[in-house]
Amino acid sequence: MRYGTKDVLRGVEFEIRPNEIVCLLGPNGAGKTTTIEILEGFRTRSAGEVEVLGVDPATGDEDWRARTGVVLQSWRDHARWTPRILLRHLGQYYTPYSTPERTRPYDVDELIKMVGLGEQADQKVLTLSGGQRRRLDVAIGIIGRPELLFLDEPTAGFDPHARREFHELVQRLSELEETTILLTTHDLDEAEKLADRILILAAGRIVADGTADELARQIAGKGQVRWSRGGEQFVDAPADATRFVRELFAEYGEEIADLEVRRASLEDTYITLVQQHEGGNAEEAADTIEARSSTETHSNTDEAREGGR
């Protein structure tokens, strides 16, 4: 994607398989929303090839659009309608595209219950809280029982309870409704919890593609082990955490307490990759995080041996 003489997306290449939940991560301005809009057919790309459900989104017809669902970052129309009336109205547009394999639209009462708006179903939209409005946004996005669902910052404004319910809804859509899902979020815990696979976009490119565990191992390569013995606390970063723990117990047995094995977090991986690629030093990513982990480990171990932290 090019604006004037500036390439905001270049060499973005990935594939999403049926029924996968894939999370697209990246800092503000990295091009996440632009990427999503190209896939949705809302924005025309400058070059390259894109195929969504076997169709080029730039030429997708109404039949193709009926197979996709979109939850935008915000939507503020129809403030004087109620959720029930609005969903019934929008659902009518999907009726001609119903198939024996996928009946469209959702039953409105079932959908309202699914997204947790039972008590607000007959209130005017303008009276809903931010979290309730976001639930309605999700309901609007899935009213047509999409095969592919785009979620752009779906839990913005959600409290912890609402976020957990939304995560359960996403899992249900993937497992029971066989819906493929591509979402963007700034919540790394959410990405790690929901995604089968994570894509990281930085400096207009996809710089990482894999599970949270695969990405952490790719960048850090080491686990961190914490334990206590005789009231003293220790920490180490062995190359093979499993073998290290086995040898630790073989040597000290029941003296070992408070054992914790921790791999590099998705946050560690994400920050390192983004910093290195935005700075043009991608090849230093692994060295940086490993050096940082090593420095912290030696420092903490020294303190532990001097009397604990």
From TrEMBL:
<feature type="region of interest" description="Disordered">
    <location>
        <begin position="275"/>
        <end position="309"/>
    </location>
</feature>
<keyword id="KW-0813">Transport</keyword>
<feature type="compositionally biased region" description="Basic and acidic residues">
    <location>
        <begin position="289"/>
        <end position="309"/>
    </location>
</feature>
<dbReference type="InterPro" id="IPR027417">
    <property type="entry name" value="P-loop_NTPase"/>
</dbReference>
<dbReference type="InterPro" id="IPR050763">
    <property type="entry name" value="ABC_transporter_ATP-binding"/>
</dbReference>
<dbReference type="InterPro" id="IPR017871">
    <property type="entry name" value="ABC_transporter-like_CS"/>
</dbReference>
<feature type="domain" description="ABC transporter">
    <location>
        <begin position="1"/>
        <end position="228"/>
    </location>
</feature>
<protein>
    <submittedName>
        <fullName>ABC transporter ATP-binding protein</fullName>
    </submittedName>
</protein>
<keyword id="KW-0547">Nucleotide-binding</keyword>
<dbReference type="InterPro" id="IPR003439">
    <property type="entry name" value="ABC_transporter-like_ATP-bd"/>
</dbReference>
<keyword id="KW-0067">ATP-binding</keyword>
<keyword id="KW-0046">Antibiotic resistance</keyword>
<dbReference type="InterPro" id="IPR003593">
    <property type="entry name" value="AAA+_ATPase"/>
</dbReference>
<dbReference type="GO" id="GO:0005524">
    <property type="term" value="F:ATP binding"/>
</dbReference>
<dbReference type="Pfam" id="PF00005">
    <property type="entry name" value="ABC_tran"/>
</dbReference>
